[in-house]
Amino acid sequence: MIVRKNKAKVKERFINGNIDTLEVVIPNISDHVMEYADSHLFLDEIINAVIDCKFHSDGIPASLFLYGLLSAKLKRLFSVTESTLAITTPSIIDKYNLNFASKKEFTSEGNMRKFIEKIGSSDAITAEQVQEKIKEITNKNKLIKDENKKIVIDEDKIRTELQIKQNGHKFVTLFNNVSKKLLEKLEKPKIHILDCVKQPVNTSNFNYELSTVINYEGKMMRGYKMGVLRCITEKGGMIEYLIDDTLSKNDMALVEKEISEYDGFSSGDYLLADRGFAKIEFITNLVKRGVNVIIPVRKNMDIFKECVKLAKESNAWEKHPNQKRKGQEIVLIKGLKGLWISEKDRIKKPAKMLENAIDFSACVIRIEKDKNKDMIDASNKAGDDTDAIYEDEKYIYLVITSTNSELSATQIIRYYEMRPEIEEDFRQLKDIWKICTFTSTKYVFVMCQICMTFLAYNLFNMFKASDEGIKYLYKSMKRISNEEQRDRVPFNEANYLIISGSYYGIFSGAELLDLYVECPKEIREKIKPLLA
């Protein structure tokens, strides 16, 4: 039965004992986040990002579909069916005078699916896009240099795959546009962390659109990959930019163009990245824009070898600034201009190379093996590769470079030790938020799951850093949810949904108590079982 909001009618009928349902609406963390986002107009930015989907064909505002998707992700629900049931935030139900069924379902699963596909609908692929993709495939085949491998170009297949990618990418664009607007409401971030995250799916399921297979740590993995840029602000941080592609895409190839051109950087910002992004052309493009890059280098690079050599010669080691790093020392090496060039290029065109070279400095870290056995064993057990470390009989050496030659060794370390922030994001998103739990093999639904989860995660972290949510600051979503299930909610902090006939109303504990007192004694006796 569909019921409509009318508190006055419900009050009138309540006093006369005409009550069909009285449900306790217990406040939870997802409701707190949604209320915060709504009151600060963050949800409006999400709605504006899908302005072309303002109203769905069934007359339900786009905002409700989006709220359903966000509420579901905050509750860590995954299926489209659950998204139609997820809105429980009283202020949002009241705000929209929502047609309300006793089972709390505001629309059907079919309508939610249509809405997701409507957001993901995009212009038809052009002939130019198809030809560009054919050219890319052809060039890639030439690099393989396998004369026996013949590529059959199927233009219809290419067009279909491009369309699927373009449709799913609409959710990535939505996320990036919303994140940009949210950041405008916060203080401008100066520190950014770059990484890529794998999004695995069922390896044996070949139906996941556009998914590819790789060999990862000796096992086959099917899925997708996201390039992720995270920022750090004084009040926490958030995921600020996403790039989508297949699992087989190389990390550097995935992010290079878009991150080099990213308009969220300002002169003086810092980009922290791991050695997988240590490409001199990429770094040079960022430095030209005034972005400082802090990045470790591989042991087979000239700059690494020279830094370790100079560090040993100087013997000016200082204690690691992190007191937890026992048996670790650091030293600053400066004046490294021109060293991030291969020996071959230095001989071939030295003048040009040195003219455009960056004046790097570096922090060399030496780790005493005997005092760090647990750390080294854990690293080996985790399967970390060793291309970033050099070792002698007593020490292991790491080199972290900086394009800002004014930084001290301690400052370089302090900055780079912020990089695990993004790894913690990935851990929580996978383990707690279940970002890789997909209930559809269609690319547009996969991207919807990923991007809406990232967006909900951002809102959650923004809420925790706010005055309203500061008590949750150092707690994960899982811990907060567990505490909510354990703790008893006071009567006056709960809300109460009352359905009477074709009307419903949501009342605070104080309002319900006032209503109960107004009732005649015989009506109160009738109501008591509903309050139990």
Structure classification: alpha+beta
What best-fitting shape do the alpha-carbon axes yield?
A: globular
Unreliable runs, pLDDT <50, ≥5 residues?
A: none
Instruction: Write down the Rg.
Output: 28 Å
| First-last Cα distance | 24 Å
Largest sheet geometry: 11 strands, mixed
The multimeric state of the shown protein is: single chain
Give the tally of β-strands. 16
Fraction of residues in helices?
A: 40-55%
The mean pLDDT is 85
Bin the strand percentage.
15-25%
Number of helices: 21
Summarize the structure.
The protein is α+β, with helices and mostly antiparallel strands and 532 residues long. Helices cover 44% and strands 19% of the residues. The protein is built from 21 helices and 16 strands.
Describe this structure in words.
There is one protein chain. The protein is α+β, with helices and mostly antiparallel strands. It is built from 21 helices and 16 strands. It has helices at residues 7-15, 29-39, 42-48, 62-74, 80-83, 90-95, 109-119, 127-144, 155-184, 251-260, 280-288, 302-314, 343-348, 350-355, 373-381, 409-416, 420-431, 443-464, 477-486, 509-518, 521-531; strands at residues 2-5, 21-25, 100-101, 191-201, 212-216, 219-233, 236-246, 270-273, 292-296, 318-319, 328-333, 361-368, 390-391, 395-402, 495-500, 503-508. The strands form two sheets. Strands 4, 5, 6, 7, 8, 9, 10, 11, 12, 13 and 14 form an eleven-stranded mixed sheet that branches. A five-stranded mixed sheet has the order 2-15-16-1-3. Strand 8, helix 11 (280-288) and strand 9 (292-296) form a beta-alpha-beta unit. The chain is globular, with a radius of gyration of 28 Å. The two termini are 24 Å apart. 35% of the residues are buried.
